[in-house]
Design a protein that fits this description.
It is a single chain. With 142 residues, the chain is of the alpha/beta class. It has one domain (22-139): Ribosomal Protein S5, domain 2 (2-Layer Sandwich), CATH 3.30.230.10. 36% of the residues lie in helices and 19% in strands.
């Protein structure tokens, strides 16, 4: 491989990805999956609502994290809803591999007038805390 100067000097490669980066995150697509998550656990944050459920043993993709996103018309017009979902997708992409759990389904629900405009770093922290609280309570059997 050629270096930046065009010679055959070695090129620095990025460090190997951390184990969390190798966890596969897939999208929820079926309405039934969204409904099952809605009937399970919830964590409300100022920026969004996190719905989550552990998949059953007989369900496929046991070793993967699955995530879905929704923003109803209560969130605003099409532009607001799309912006809210883009932001939710990005915080999930950044946080779920490290803080989510394989074998779980998560749904992030946008909130009216907040998800599209809330500080992005704050929303990332809210997702991190919501996931930690959710899994802490799951371990304790609550």
């Amino acid at each position: 491989m050629h270096g930046p100067s065009g010679t055959r000097e070695p090129v620095e490669r990025p460090a190997a990805p951390c184990p969390a980066a190798s966890i596969r995150v897939e999208r929820l697509k079926r309405r039934a999956d969204f409904l099952r998550a809605a009937r399970a656990q919830r964590r409300a944050t100022p920026g969004f609502i996190l719905q989550a459920r552990r998949r059953g043993e007989n369900e496929p993709d046991e070793g993967r994290i699955r995530v879905g996103f929704t923003a109803s018309k209560k969130v605003g017009g099409a532009v607001q809803r799309n912006r809210a979902k883009r932001r939710l997708r990005e915080i999930a992409r950044l946080e779920l591999p490290a803080h989510g759990r394989p074998g779980w389904d998560y749904v992030l629900v946008g909130r009216r007038e907040v998800t599209a405009s809330r500080d992005f770093a704050t929303m990332r922290e809210e997702l991190r805390r919501a996931l930690e609280a959710l899994h802490r309570n799951t371990r304790e059997g609550k």
